[in-house]
Design a protein that fits this description.
The protein is of the alpha+beta class. It contains nine helices and 21 strands. The strands form five sheets. Strands 5-6-4-14-15-16-13-17 form an eight-stranded mixed β-sheet, with helices on both faces. A six-stranded mixed β-sheet has the order 8-2-1-12-19-18. The chain binds flavin-adenine dinucleotide (FAD).
Length: about 375
């Protein structure tokens, strides 16, 4: 049975463990912290949505497929990971959003069961509270608890906690990871990829973010769907709402900032005035997302930087799943499926966000042309 070393015990790493285990292999997760989901994946609740693109370009296809895949999987897993598919309303708060969302509705070609635009009145009915904006409605979107998802993914796998991988040595048949032999290695350690010589050139950076929870109020407890307005508010579970989030690429600490709580709540009240009023913040958590230069995840084989520009070639049996940005619940599972197919079939048969010269070395500024997809 092939032994696969997975570095990182967040959504990216545990999703790989789940998919490789399901495929009959023996994954071993190495996690530097004392628990799984200690980094960006440790929030109490997160929402799953595709990333929005006005045109159905390859990037949009990737997020659309990833979204549909995770909808099915979470439906199967159910309440064990606090999953609820209660739908998401994306408020149309600016004329630019109005144009973008209407274009998206047309170009994505999804039916009303997946995507529709509703009036402010219909949105209010769906949400259970008064909204003053029309909205894009995604009925199958919802929420899940990221750290419980990690626990579910990893539950039949060997997990080594408090074990930071410091040594990766290539052998004739695979890799030595901290001195132990494996057939392949998957780097799923967020910005930790910068600590390995094979990937220390990747254009990734961190973006700090904070979420909070506040006690439900007489009005807010009626909320039935996710609300997205730049920030997000999730329906109350066990008497508290989860709301987020901030984006600070210039901060690298994870201390709780009172100013972030203030900003999250004022952003909410600006978009949804019917939820104005005092709120009791009961919890807050900050962590570091990993993002790439073009804001797409980095998934697939690791290219050999020596040969990268001339004749692209790969570091044998080394894979990567990182830079999941703000959509890790959705993209990490798709990433795992893509890597699994690459490993077992050496296949280019699924659309994936590969690391290519076009994407990271030659392109300057044009997001659309810098991305290479294999079909
Ligand atoms: C405030 C905030 C709100 C968010 N909200 C949502 C949301 O609502 N929906 C959504 O889909 N996404 C959301 N995200 C994004 C999502 O959380 C991330 O995309 C996802 O958690 C990334 O998972 P990951 O496994 O790549 O990274 P991480 O969860 O950070 O995991 C990487 C792991 O690798 C470990 N590691 C690093 N180096 C080593 C090493 N050398 N050896 C061993 N282990 C190592 C780290 O300890 C860490 O546990 C949010 C993020 C933030 C910060």
């Amino acid at each position: 049975m092939d032994r696969i070393a997975i570095i990182g015990g967040g959504l990216a790493g545990t999703a790989c463990a789940y998919v490789f285990r399901r495929g009959g292999m023996e994954p071993v997760i190495f996690e530097a912290s004392e628990s799984l989901a200690a980094g960006a994946s440790g929030n109490p609740l997160g929402l799953y949505n595709p990333r929005f693109f006005a045109e159905k370009m390859p990037q949009a296809e990737f997020y659309a497929e990833a979204f549909l895949d995770i909808c099915s999987l979470l439906q199967e897993i159910g309440e064990e990971v606090d999953h609820s598919a209660h739908g998401s309303l994306h408020l149309i708060t600016t004329p630019e959003k109005d144009i973008r969302f209407r274009k998206m509705l047309e170009s994505w070609g999804w039916g009303d069961d997946l995507m529709t635009i509703v009036s402010a009145e219909q949105a209010s009915d769906l949400a259970g509270i008064k909204l003053s904006h029309d909205a894009m409605f995604l009925p199958t979107s919802g929420v899940a608890c990221p750290y419980k998802v990690c626990g579910y993914y990893a539950r039949d796998c060997e997990v080594r906690l408090n074990e930071s991988v410091t040594e990766l040595v290539q052998t004739t048949s695979g890799w030595q990871v901290n001195g132990e032999s494996f057939d392949a290695v998957i780097l799923a350690c967020g910005a930790g990829v910068l600590n390995f010589e094979q990937t220390n050139w990747f254009p990734v950076h961190t973006v700090r973010g904070q979420v909070l929870q506040f006690a439900e109020t007489e009005v807010s407890k009626n909320l039935k769907t996710n609300l997205n307005y730049g920030g997000y508010l999730l329906p109350s579970t066990n008497g508290v709402h989860t709301s987020g989030s901030t984006f600070q690429s210039w901060l690298t600490h994870t201390d709780i900032l009172e100013q972030d709580n203030t900003d999250i709540l004022s952003n909410l009240e600006k978009a949804v005035p019917s939820l104005s009023g005092d709120k009791e913040v009961t919890y807050a958590r900050a962590s570091l997302r990993t993002a790439s230069k073009d804001r797409l995840p980095i998934i697939g084989c690791v290219p050999d930087p020596e040969a990268f520009e001339e004749v692209p070639s790969q570091v044998q049996n080394m894979f990567v799943s990182t830079a999941h940005g703000s959509h890790g619940i959705v993209t990490s599972y798709k990433a795992a499926e893509i890597i699994f197919k690459k490993y077992v079939q050496d296949a280019d048969n699924s659309a994936y966000v590969e690391v290519s010269p076009d994407r990271f070395l030659k392109g300057k500024g044009n997001r659309k042309t810098r991305v290479n997809f294999s079909q």
